[in-house]
């Protein structure tokens, strides 16, 4: 999977790395147990600081998407579960997004259709 970062974006680089790996998992571009580049290698490829890549990887590890060990390096985790921590984070993010949607005049059906379309976009990939 080729990561693309936008240095002009207001989104922090580590967050862009995090988000693109999540999108790669959802789209099937990354598979369970697939090896990822070492922090140093990815930092060189993206022309960013190693600490930036490490921060993105560490966030993904804390969320259960990646695992690391000294022998095999960083890999995609084999199992993903919607545990209580994930469900709480999802609920908080959805709460914020639905509040913004309501303020902007979207109704429940509009939001449901948007969510369904986004979800289905990952089903077909």
TrEMBL record:
Which of UniProt's keywords are assigned here? Answer: DNA-binding, Transcription, Transcription regulation
Q: Which InterPro entries match?
A: Tscrpt_reg_HTH_GntR, WH-like_DNA-bd_sf, WH_DNA-bd_sf
Leader sequence range is none
Boundaries of every HTH gntR-type domain copy: 11-79
Mention any Pfam family matching this sequence. Answer: GntR
Origin superkingdom: Bacteria
Q: What is this protein called?
A: GntR family transcriptional regulator
Question: Which organism encodes this protein?
Answer: Loigolactobacillus jiayinensis
Taxonomic classification: Bacteria, Bacillati, Bacillota, Bacilli, Lactobacillales
């Amino acid at each position: 999977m080729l990561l693309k970062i936008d240095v002009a974006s207001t989104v922090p680089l580590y967050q862009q790395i995090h988000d693109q790996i999540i999108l790669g998992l959802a789209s099937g571009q990354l598979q369970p147990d697939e090896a990822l580049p070492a922090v140093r290698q990815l930092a060189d490829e993206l022309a960013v600081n190693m600490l930036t890549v490490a921060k993105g990887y560490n966030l993904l590890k804390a969320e259960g998407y990646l695992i690391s060990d000294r022998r095999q390096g960083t890999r995609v985790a084999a199992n993903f579960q919607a545990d209580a921590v994930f469900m709480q984070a999802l609920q908080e993010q959805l709460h914020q997004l639905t509040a913004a949607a309501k303020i902007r005049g979207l109704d429940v059906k509009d939001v449901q259709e948007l969510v369904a379309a986004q979800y289905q976009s990952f089903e077909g990939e």
